[in-house]
Amino acid sequence: MELFQKAYYPAPVDEAGVRKHWDGEGYSFHLMTDPMGQEWNDFVHAVDEYVTVAEGQLRISVGEETFVANPGDLVFIPRDVPHSLKTLSAAGSRWLFGYN
Length: 100
Description:
- The structure is a single chain.
- Helices cover 10% and strands 45% of the residues.
- It is built from one helix and nine strands.
- The mean pLDDT is 97.
- The protein is mostly beta strands.
- It starts with a strand and ends with a strand.
- The chain has a five-stranded antiparallel beta sheet, with no helix packed on it. Strands 3-8-5-6 form a four-stranded antiparallel beta sheet, with no helix packed on it.
């Protein structure tokens, strides 16, 4: 799977639709709301992860690659790969994540 898929889900993002899709692939579903500038740095999980921005904008680094993700973009984070996220938008962000 590609690490970054632009506009994978149509905006505005239908969170229930994303949950249904992820559930069908065996992923959990969680929601995070962050203020501007919030950073989550150097995480590593023993499972694969999906991240989709519902509102706002995130900078997401996966290993050596960095993406700016907007509503509807899908980021795949493979297991055991270091990753970081930062909210770039002034109004904060609302983003979805799930593990498999």
